[in-house]
Design a protein that fits this description.
There is one protein chain. By secondary structure, the protein is mostly beta strands. The chain has helices at 20-29, 218-222, 236-239, 310-321, and strands at 8-10, 43-45, 79-80, 83-84, 87-88, 123-124, 128-131, 141-142, 156-157, 162-163, 167-168, 195-203, 240-250, 273-279, 290-291, 297-309, 350-353. The chain has 2 domains: 1-46, no CATH class; 50-353, no CATH class. The protein is built from 4 helices and 17 strands. Strands 6, 7, 12, 13, 14, 16 and 17 form a 7-stranded mixed β-sheet that branches. A two-stranded antiparallel sheet has the order 1-2. It has a two-stranded antiparallel sheet with strand order 3-15. The longest helix is centred in the last third of the chain and has 12 residues, at 310-321.
């Protein structure tokens, strides 16, 4: 049976190369090893190759917009969240409470897309993740969750000074799968036992189905194709979306999943209990005083926290290394925005189940 550890990529036999297979074969042949040779494979570790035509022109480069209606208006820059002269300065924000039954109080500008993004002509244009959850789900990822590192009051992690979000409830300091270190080959600054929220930004204006589909920064991918996303008439909530899914990393190959790169896992219990709502882009440059103007966009967030193997994450980073655009800026955890206030969360949460 092939090992599920992604980093071991199958290669043809090479006479000069020693491998676990050779050693196992020798031991089994001398009757000093009881392991089943059939479970071993002739594998070795590869580094990610350079993609073909990696230096080709990138039609999505620098497509992130800063102006909206007229040149120089700076429409998309962050703004004050507060109500000014009776007018709401910011539309609905993310990440929000996604506990079943929750509804915010900010009158929503848009309506969320409640069917899979791919059925609406969107494609994933990026993948990135945050240290801890930016969303909040009671009993799944909340203030009572635990992790191997101390994140006092969901504050800043000393090692790299990024804000930590909410934690899941899976971590057990007495269970080795949460504490055994993993040798990361591609992802950076990752910790076994920690909780991370993965985001897959989606767009109708992505370079879908081409070598330039995946981009860092993700805004370049979201706005790659002109003439699709519009502020007047406003259609951002139906042309831009983000999938969100929260995981606790374990060092256990029973939790291996081969493809975290292309989108939310919808398999078994994963990707079934979903909240749909409209909000904004997130990140620590925004909070409850400073809001994002990249809104409203649809969010589809899994309310459950799932366990996933460290090798699954590392395989995702390997896949990122193989994209034409340089995605190295997203191969480590980003900081988590603080939970948005009820007054900034949309009043249009759809508590759907399944797909």
């Amino acid at each position: 049976m092939m090992s599920k550890t992604f980093a071991m990529l199958a290669l043809p036999s090479v006479a000069a190369m020693s491998s676990c297979y050779d050693l196992k074969a020798a031991y089994q042949g001398s009757q000093c090893c009881t392991s089943d040779l059939a479970k071993m494979t002739n594998q070795t570790v590869l580094v990610a190759p350079t993609p073909m035509n990696a230096n080709a022109a990138n039609p999505c480069q620098d497509k992130k917009p800063y102006d909206g209606f007229t040149a120089g208006d700076g429409y998309f820059y962050n703004i004050n969240c507060s109500i000014v002269d009776g007018v709401a300065a910011a539309v609905e924000q993310a990440g929000a409470n996604v506990t079943a039954g929750y509804v915010g109080t900010r009158p929503a500008v848009g309506s969320p897309t409640t069917t899979p993004f791919w059925q609406n002509g969107m494609c994933a244009v990026n993948v990135h993740w945050h240290l801890g959850a930016e969303h909040y789900s009671v009993g799944e990822f909340d203030e009572h969750g635990t992790a191997p590192m101390d994140h006092s009051s969901h504050g800043r992690r000393m090692a790299d000074d990024i804000r930590a979000g909410f934690k899941c409830h899976h971590y057990d300091a007495h269970d080795s799968k949460f504490t055994m270190p993993y040798t990361w080959k591609f992802c950076e600054n990752m910790v076994v036992g920690e909780s991370y929220e993965i985001h897959w930004p989606q767009s109708k204006a992505g370079a879908c189905g081409t070598p330039n589909q995946y981009q860092t920064p993700f805004y370049d991918g979201v706005f790659c194709t002109d003439g699709i996303i519009s502020l007047s008439p406003l259609n951002t909530f139906s042309t831009i979306g983000v999938q969100g899914q929260v995981f606790t990393i374990v060092n256990d190959e029973d939790y291996y999943y081969p493809d975290l790169f292309r989108g939310m896992i919808v398999d078994g219990t994963m990707g079934q209990d979903i909240t749909y709502y409209t909000g904004s882009t997130t990140g620590t440059t925004r909070n409850n005083e400073i809001c994002s103007q990249y809104a409203p966009i649809t969010w589809q967030v899994d309310r459950k926290c799932h366990m996933i193997s460290a090798s699954s994450f590392d395989k995702m980073c390997y896949d990122m290394k193989n994209q034409r655009d340089d995605m190295s800026g997203d191969m480590h955890p980003h900081g988590a925005r603080e939970l948005v206030l009820d007054s900034l969360a949309a009043d249009n949460h759809v508590n759907g189940y399944g797909r």
